[in-house]
Amino acid sequence: QVQFVESGGGLVQTGGSLGLSCGASGFTFRLYVMSWYRQAPGKERELVASITSDGRITNYPDSVKGRFAISRDNVRSRVYLQMNSLKPEDTAVYYCNTMPVQTWGQGTQVTVSS
Asked: Is the peptide bond before 100 cis (omega within 30 degrees of 0)?
C-alpha cells in the first residue's frame, strides 16, 4: 500500500535551517508530482512546496518562497525539503504526499523558537 515516512524535523532557533526527508513506497514514484504540506496547531493543512515528476519545475507559496527548496530522487523514491531562514510561524508538522494526495504519513515535527 501507499506509504510515506517523513524524517528530519526538530527544534531550531529563528533563522536556522533544517532538512526534511521523505521515503515513499507503494506506487510508481517517478510518475507523480510530489509535495510537502504542513499543519500548524489549530490551522488547516497547507501546501508549502511541490515538484514535478521529472524534478524540473518547483512551486512555492509566497510564505516560503526563497527560503524553502524541494528536491527529489526518483531512483531512491525520496523527496526532500531544505528549509532556511526559519521563522516561528514555520512551526508545524510537515508531511509529504503526492498530488493529488493519497494516504498521510505520520509527519515530522518542526519547531522554531523565537
From this structure: yes
